[in-house]
Amino acid sequence: MIVRIMGEGQVKLADSHFTELNSLDDELLEEMESGDEEGFRRTLGALLEAVRRLGVPLPDDALEPSELILPAPDASLEEVRQMLSDDGLIPG
């Protein structure tokens, strides 16, 4: 799956990594619902770091359609809330 982190670029992630990412996504959703700004910042950073660590960066000139778009590291709680689906940021 091709994943874009807003403001950073795209990475290709194997489906096998989504169990770990979904766990972080669930945690992020709970923190957002409870208004835990500190937890939200920590977990968003951990989620984006996991995508960077597990994914293979695509070249800057690659024009692949992103199947998943994640917020920038400095996105506000409200900005991320607007990006959410019923499943959180990551479907599944």
Protein model, in words:
- The protein has 92 residues and is an alpha+beta fold.
- Helices cover 46% and strands 14% of the residues.
- It has helices spanning 18-34, 37-54, 77-83, and strands at 2-5, 9-12, 56-57, 68-70.
- Strands 3-2-1-4 form a 4-stranded mixed β-sheet, covered by helices on one side.
- Strand 1 and strand 2 form a beta hairpin.
- Helix 1 runs antiparallel to helix 2 (37-54).
- The longest helix has 18 residues, at 37-54.
- It is globular and about 40 Å long.
- The two termini are 13 Å apart.
- The model has no long low-confidence stretch (mean pLDDT 90).
- H/E element order: EEHHEEH
* Extended strand count: 4
Shape: globular
CA distance, first residue to last residue:
13 Å
The oligomeric state is single chain
Show unreliable segments.
none
**Computed Rg:** 13 Å
- Could you tell me the mean pLDDT? 90
Summarize the entry for a quick read.
46% of the residues lie in helices and 14% in strands. It has 3 helices and 4 strands.
Topology:
Blueprint: E1 2-5, E2 9-12, H1 18-34, H2 37-54, E3 56-57, E4 68-70, H3 77-83
Parallel strand pairs: 1-4
Antiparallel strand pairs: 1-2, 2-3
Helix pairs in contact: 1-2
